[in-house]
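[09:14] KT: can someone run the structure on this one? pasting the chain below
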Amino acid sequence: MRRTLPAVMMSVVTAAAVPATISTSHAPTHPASTTAPAPVVQRVAPPTSPAVVRARSLRRAVVHLAAQRRTTLGGLLDQWQRVAVCEVNGDWHMVGPVYSGIGFLNSTWAQYGGYRFAPVAGRAGRLAQVLVGMRVTGGWIPDQYGCQPGGW
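[09:31] RB: done, structure tokens below
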């Protein structure tokens, strides 16, 4: 049981003034010591939305891919950024009738599960495009050093 300092001090003073037979009993020695303990307040985590769960799952999947390549998430994104520069001048959000994102054929995007994230790659975020890109290439990242700034 938690006691405040004044209550403890009063208990000590009262115990010293009362004969030993009473002070050794388990009866409360001060009215303050008979108060009920404070209620325990439990923190409840706010509900997690499905969108947050999907975003966390996507991030974990791409972090796992980066670890398989012995790099960090930032390192993997840097490599794919160079692909984006080569393919679409760095415009991850490019949307066209045939190609979108960092150069995905819209049909390839759909074939490799991109619809889970967006109808076309240019409407999806970078992590989704990297994940689908790694599926398309089997874990290989296209050569980013052999292109001109405007494309291959």
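[09:33] KT: thanks! Residues 5-34 form one domain.
[09:34] RB: yep, looked fine to me
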